[in-house]
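Regression test case RT-17, inverse folding.

Input:
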């Protein structure tokens, strides 16, 4: 005789960058275990892989997790966690004034991802522009941690995230042009143009929450912005 099934709840959420509605189920103990082992390893690639795997298993629609933007993954993970573990999280946050660690509770519904309305097109001259996409977890996890801040990594990410180049005559997709041509194109940018493209990444949406608390030690009123998944899970 088959044992009874324990868990069959499912929920709906939206993928921030595309607006696509998806159905998911909470994660199970066996899946959480894989993630915990990855977090303990402190190995970025392993954490990324475990998070992606968990999201793939729990989202019941057919989506390509590898191609989602980093903030999509973060947002989906938060949805999963809120339905799997609980709707709030306890954090330790330092006081601005005296640096005492305070216990702060953040509700998941106070954490949001702001996706800008503007499109992903950056004009480089009056007639030449590029269409960009946000980096995926895969793109970011492939960066060598030792070179994370280097110009080489910046080039690498920009190369991956330019979808197409266009001018008055037409649209040239990165796929058709190939990496060599794209590299030459990026190397031919001037400093201002390069900065305009870099700004696209600096203003990338992220999980965000502003938390207010009164310090338990010095009574100072604190207001801190938490940004990115790591700031909610460390
Ligand atoms: Zn204080």
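Golden output:
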């Amino acid at each position: 005789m088959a044992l009874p099934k324990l868990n069959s709840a499912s929920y709906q959420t939206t993928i921030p960058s595309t607006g696509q509605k998806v159905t998911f189920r909470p994660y199970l103990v066996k899946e959480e275990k894989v993630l915990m082992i990855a977090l303990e390893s402190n190995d970025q690639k392993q954490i990324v892989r475990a998070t992606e795997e968990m999201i793939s298993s729990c989202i019941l629609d057919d989506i390509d997790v590898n191609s989602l933007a980093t903030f999509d993954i973060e947002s989906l993970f938060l949805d999963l966690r809120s339905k799997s573990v609980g709707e709030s999280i306890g954090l330790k946050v330092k006081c601005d004034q005296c640096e005492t660690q305070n216990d702060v509770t953040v509700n998941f519904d106070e954490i949001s991802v702001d996706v800008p309305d503007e499109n992903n097109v950056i004009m480089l001259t009056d007639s030449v522009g590029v269409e960009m996409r946000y980096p995926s977890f895969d793109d970011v996890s492939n960066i060598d941690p030792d070179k994370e801040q280097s110009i080489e990594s910046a080039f690498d990410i920009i190369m991956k995230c330019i979808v197409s180049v266009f001018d008055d005559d037409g649209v040239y997709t990165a796929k058709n042009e190939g990496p060599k041509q794209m590299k030459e194109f990026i190397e031919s940018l001037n400093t201002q143009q390069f900065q305009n493209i870099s700004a696209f990444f600096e203003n990338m949406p992220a999980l965000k929450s502003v938390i207010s608390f009164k310090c338990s030690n010095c009574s100072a009123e604190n207001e801190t912005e938490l940004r990115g998944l790591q700031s909610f899970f460390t």
